[in-house]
Amino acid sequence: MNTRRAKSRWTNTILVCRKCSKKLKGGFGPDGKKPLAKALRKHLQTGKGRMADAGILEVGCLDLCPKRAVTVVDARHPDQWLVVRPGANLDGLAHELDLKG
Question: Per-domain residue ranges for the chain?
Answer without folding.
Answer: 13-96
